[in-house]
Structure formats: C-alpha cells, structure tokens
DNA sequence: TTGTATGCGTTATCAT
DNA sequence: ATGATAACGCATACAA
C-alpha cells in the first residue's frame, strides 16, 4: 500500500495504451478503440474498465504516435508577414475561429516579408506533415509551394494575389476600394487630391492606385504626377511602425509641395495615421486644413483623433473564409479551386472635411 | 526512360529514408546518420551518394517519425489572452525571436481569458508532447499546469504573477510603475489626480493602483475615494476594443464628477486612449483641460494625437526573457526556478500639461 | 466482441 | 564504417 504512493518524478515514463490495457486487464487494441472514439463496438463493461484505468493512470494520448500511424495531421500552417500588424492579427483570429470550430489547430509563422524565412517555414510545416497552408506569400518564386501541392498539400493564398500558382484564393477588390475612397473625397468637394503610398512594389498597392486614377478620370479631374507621393525608402522589417514612420515622411513631402492638395488618400491606415501626425507637427489641422482618408479600417483607426475615415477591408472575414476554403478542399477529394474577391465599403468618420458645406 | 517521368499525383507516397537508401545503394541506418547530421562517421563517398539520392528523390524528413523515436519536441507552447492585443503580440515577437534563434518553433494559443479554453489548449499542447510552455495564465486553478510539471513539462509564467505555482516567472513592477506615473503628474503640478481603471480583478491592476496610492501618500495628497474611477462592467472577450470602449465610458464618469481632476492616470494605454477620445467628444482638450497618462507603452500610443505620455512596460523583452528562461530550464536538468521582475520607465510625450509653467 | 500482430518513419543498439 | 533490427505510441487488418 505504501509503494503505491510512489513519488512521481520528472523522469516518470509516459503512460501508454499498453499500461492502460494492463491496468484494465484487456488488450491495447481494445483500449485504442475506446479511447480514440473510434466507434468500434466494445462491451460496455470493458469500456468502463478502460476509462477508469485511463483516469486512474492519468493517461493522455500521444498525438505523435497517432499522427504517425494515421498519417493525418489536425494542424494547418499559416504564414503571414507579421503578427504585430493589426491587419494580420485580425486575419489570424478569423482563421483560428474557423479552424477551431472544425477541430483544427494552427501553426503560425511570421515571415517578416523575407522570402528566405518564408521558405524555411514552408519547409518546416511540410516536415510537420501539415496537409494545408494558408499564406500571404511574399516570395516571387512559388516553386516551393507548387512542390508541396504536388505532394498533396493544399494551399490557399490571400492578401497577395498572384496568378503564378493554381489554388483557391481570397482576394480583395483594391481597385474598387481606391475608387470609393477617392469618389468620396470628390463628393465632399475635393479636387486637389494626392495619393500617398509606400513603394508600389506590391500588386495591392498598384491596384489601389489604379482606383485612385479611375476616380479622377471618371470625374474629369486631371491626373497630376506630382500628386502621387511615393516614398523611396526600401521596406524594412514589416512592423506596424514602419508604415507609420513612412507616413510621417510622406507628410513632409506633402508640405514641400508648392500647390498643396486639399485631401490625401493614403495607401493604408497605418500610413494615414503617420501622415496625420506628420501634418499635425507642422501645425496643419486634419481635417480643417487638409483631409485624410485611409484604407484597411484597422481597429486603431477609430481610436485616433480625428477618427479616420477609411475603406473597410474585412480582415477577419478574409481569414475565416481562407481557412474555410482550405479545410473544405482538404476534406474533399473532388474539390475545385475557388477564388473569392471581397468587396470594400466606406467607413465615414471625421478625417475628411466637406468643402461644399459653408462653415 | 519514359516511365521515369511518371506524373506525380496527389496520392504519391511520401519518400522515406528507405527509398533514399535504395536509390543510394546503402542502408536506411546510414541514410539516417547522414541526413540527421548525427555526426556519426560515414565514408565521404557514401555520404555524397546519399545526399544526391535524397536530392534526386526530393526527400523530406518526417518530423513526426523523428519525434516519436526521439521523444523530444522542438516546439514550445505559448498561451496568451489574445493576439489582437498589441501588448501581447509584442510579447509573442520576443518569444519567437528567442525560440527561433535556438531552433525552436512556437505553438500559439489564444485563451481569450477563458479558463476552459486555456485548459483545453494546455491539454492539447501536452498531447503534442511539448516539453515547455510559457503562459499568461488566467485560470484560478493551476492544477493542470502542476500536473504537466509532474510529467516533466517546464512552465514559465509571465504577465499574471501568481504564487500558486512553483516555476520560473517574469514579472513587472507595477507598483513602481504606478508610482512613477503619478509622481510625474505631481511634478507637473497636478494634485487633483484620478485613477481610471477596468475592474480591479487582476493583481496587476491592483498593484498599479497601489502605486497610485503610494505616490499620493508620499506627497501628502489625500486619497479621495471619488477619484478612483472603476468601471463595473464585466470583462468581455479580451480584444483591443474592449479596453478602448471601457475608456470611453470612464470618460463620461469623469465628466460626471462635480470636482473634476486636472489629470487622470489610466490603468493601461488602451484605456487611456479611450478616455482621450471620450473627453474629446465632450469638447475637453487633452492636455490643455485635462491631462492623461497611460500605462504599458504600446505602439499605438505614440501614434495618437496627442502622443500619449506613459509608463513603459518592456513587452518584447518580457517575451524574450520568458522564452529564454524556459529553454534554459528545458535543457538543464539541474536548473533552478528564477523570478525576474522587469522595471518600468517613464515615456514623456505630450498628453500631460505642465501646470507650473505659465502659458 | 476481443486479441495478435504489423507498420507508420525515424533513430539507436548491436553486430559485423 | 555499415547494416539488420528493434523500438517509439498508436490504430488497424486479420484472426479468433
């Protein structure tokens, strides 16, 4: 009776189904059948003995053993630039919700927009036997992804649309978003409108700018090269502050303009917020002196002063949907790739002044 | 020659060391020795053949097989309330940096401050054979964690200090932080100072308040019960906006005070930002009419208008350190628990007015 | 309904 | 230096 209380040391061997089987006076096979909820018929009395034994021994199934045997992982990989960008953390939340509901866990990877890091992570995920990955890919070369596909791994891309790879995709109508933003400015009486952006190296940015262009065209406003304020700085590590700092720099460029715009359309909210701060440092008031409109609708945008008028990009929904498409394709052999394009909507707050209204 | 080009289908069997061995004309054992960098001596020529064969067959090691055999995982678990709170995403970044440097990957779990979810995640991590977890624990009951410890899993807690469990800890000197914040206000000539907080259900908040109290005491300012503005609302899902919305509510409470404070100390930055917006909605200006000081120094705080004066809590460093302590303890049998308390520092920006200076 | 035996992919032990 | 083989924990085909 005494040595039954044997102190459990850190070196204690893990208890396996064999231990449970011994304790319950049955075989490992039966234990497995009961404890893995296989639905396989087991006499009620034996089942109970096994459950009791498992509880008594404090048995916990070893997922590694199970995975090796079944060769089926309940993990999916997620690769994004960085968690510290609120836009992406919302996406993660969406992915995670969908995943958990269906019993999957996510393996999160921050690529920091470095294609080498991205490659390593993709490789690591593959080694961990994931059967699916949702990714905002940064690399120019998608051979790694294609190789995975050839090996049966499902891929869903979002955020960075590319025709290079054949898979399900979740995109966003940047052109329309840009169009909406600028048309809103125009409807408020603005005609001298600048577009402020980080380097146009990403498709999403170029498309947003295309929307800017289209809006001007549509309303007969000449497109001024000078009103495209593009930072030349190389992109560094993608964290929230990069875009913000960039916005501040763009603000000084704006102040350098001989003919100042009455409104500026920023390529994303973080940049817009930086611009507002930069402008404020010059003593120019937003929106009284210059109006600013953003793009993304991250949470912070409603918290600043003035609350930012912006274009909503449904980040949570993007994540949820991307994950749904992934899991659907993973669990359906006859699946078809599907591409979804999410639509923008305007969020009117207080950073745009109505020029048509006398004060 | 033709069927060598056999189309690779999705059902293609994974290539294993046996395939590589066959291709290289050697044994699986030797292949393993080479491909796992075991350091075991292998004739150079054979080694080369194996490497070539692996490349040719596109071999990728199966980590699940390796894990089962070696019973040693290179993953560590991380449990936090939510990734969407920028304070925690910074912590994750710190954890991840340390982990990656040492070859570990992290399994991220959002508990959403729900102890049931926390429990499930802890269990899931254990089933995945992690040997270490860093956690901002929310549950009152830490039996689950203790059980894991008994089974050799190392635990490091941070953020939510508790004496209930014996392990390494990374904490923060909230009392001193609160003291510093309030002393700064006092040094700027403020004497009517309010403390605005979400419910005092967390130790960290109570300690911050203790600092508030101490500062008043130290400078002979009477403690007014009315100047502790505590929201009664139950905490909902912990996302960034909860604290923010809460701040807005606290702002109306402040406006309801017959004798308004000249400065308010908010229990954290998110709340402070909400308060500023709430105050602004009333037409009161910050800091001209009322000064606001925050706590945490999240990234957003430097982006708002006015930039928030606050107390820095080194979140990235907290994560890095917690992870370091974890990995150290995991790789050292004779380790000792260590508790580290990080110190606050004051970040002076523009949300506090100097009352002693004539305008 | 239950048990025996095998294999998932890898590494380690032991011969050779 | 190399190879055959057992073992890690589990699930299953097959036998009973």
What distinguishing features does this structure have?
homodimer; 359 residues; alpha/beta; 434 Repressor (Amino-terminal Domain); Rossmann fold; 3 domains; six-stranded parallel beta sheet; four-stranded parallel beta sheet; 12 helices; 12 strands; disordered N terminus; DNA-binding
Task: Characterize the structure shown.
2 copies of one chain form a homodimer. Chain A is α/β, with parallel strands linked by helices. Chain A has 3 domains: 2-61, 434 Repressor (Amino-terminal Domain) (Orthogonal Bundle), CATH 1.10.260; 71-171 and 315-342, Response regulator (Rossmann fold), CATH 3.40.50; 174-313, Response regulator (Rossmann fold, 3-Layer(aba) Sandwich). Chain A is built from 12 helices and 12 strands. Chain A has helices at residues 17-24, 28-35, 44-57, 63-70, 86-101, 115-127, 143-150, 174-187, 203-218, 240-256, 269-281, 315-330, and strands spanning 75-80, 105-110, 132-135, 154-158, 168-172, 193-197, 228-230, 263-266, 291-293, 310-312, 339-342, 345-347. Chain A has a 6-stranded parallel beta sheet, sandwiched between helices. A 4-stranded parallel beta sheet of chain A has the order 7-6-8-9, with helices on both faces. A two-stranded antiparallel sheet of chain A has the order 10-12. Chain A starts with 16 loop residues before the first helix and ends in a 12-residue tail after the last strand. Mean pLDDT of chain A is 93; it is low at 1-10. At the A-B interface, α4, α5, β2, α6 and α10 of A face α4, α5, β2, α6 and α10 of B. The first copy, chain A, binds a DNA duplex (16 and 16 nucleotides) through α2 and α4.
């Amino acid at each position: 009776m005494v040595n039954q209380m044997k102190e459990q040391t850190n070196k204690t061997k893990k208890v396996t189904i064999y231990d449970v089987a011994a304790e319950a006076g049955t075989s490992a096979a039966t234990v497995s059948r009961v404890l893995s909820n296989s639905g396989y018929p087991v006499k009620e009395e034996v089942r109970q003995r096994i459950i009791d034994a498992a509880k008594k021994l404090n048995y916990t199934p070893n997922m590694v053993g199970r995975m090796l045997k079944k060769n089926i992982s309940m993990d999916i990989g997620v690769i994004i630039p960085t968690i510290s960008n609120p836009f992406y953390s919302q996406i993660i939340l969406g992915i995670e919700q969908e995943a958990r509901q269906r019993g999957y866990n996510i393996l999160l990877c921050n690529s920091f927009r470095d294609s080498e890091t991205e490659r390593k992570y993709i490789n690591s995920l593959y080694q961990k036997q994931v059967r699916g990955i949702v990714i905002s890919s940064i690399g120019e070369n998608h051979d790694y992804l294609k190789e995975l596909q050839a090996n049966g791994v499902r891929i869903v891309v979002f955020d960075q649309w590319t025709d290079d790879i054949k898979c399900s995709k979740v995109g966003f109508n940047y052109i329309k978003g840009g169009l909406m933003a600028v048309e809103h400015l125009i409807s408020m009486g603005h005609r001298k409108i600048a577009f402020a952006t980080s380097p146009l190296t990403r498709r999403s940015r170029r498309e947003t700018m295309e929307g800017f262009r289209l809006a001007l065209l549509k309303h007969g406003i000449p497109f001024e090269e000078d009103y495209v304020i593009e930072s030349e700085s190389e992109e560094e590590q993608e964290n929230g502050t990069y875009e913000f700092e960039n916005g501040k720099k763009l603000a000084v460029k704006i102040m350098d303009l001989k003919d100042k715009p009455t409104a500026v359309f920023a390529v994303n909210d973080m940049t817009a917020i930086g611009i507002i701060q930069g402008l404020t440092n010059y003593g120019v008031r937003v929106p009284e002196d210059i109006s600013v409109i953003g793009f993304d609708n991250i949470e912070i945008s409603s918290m600043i002063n003035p609350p930012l008028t912006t274009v909503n990009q449904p980040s949570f929904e993007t994540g949820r949907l991307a994950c749904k498409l992934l899991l659907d394709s993973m669990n359906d052999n006859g699946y078809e790739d599907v591409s979804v394009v999410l639509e923008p909507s305007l969020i009117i707050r207080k950073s745009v002044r109505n020029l048509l209204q006398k004060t």
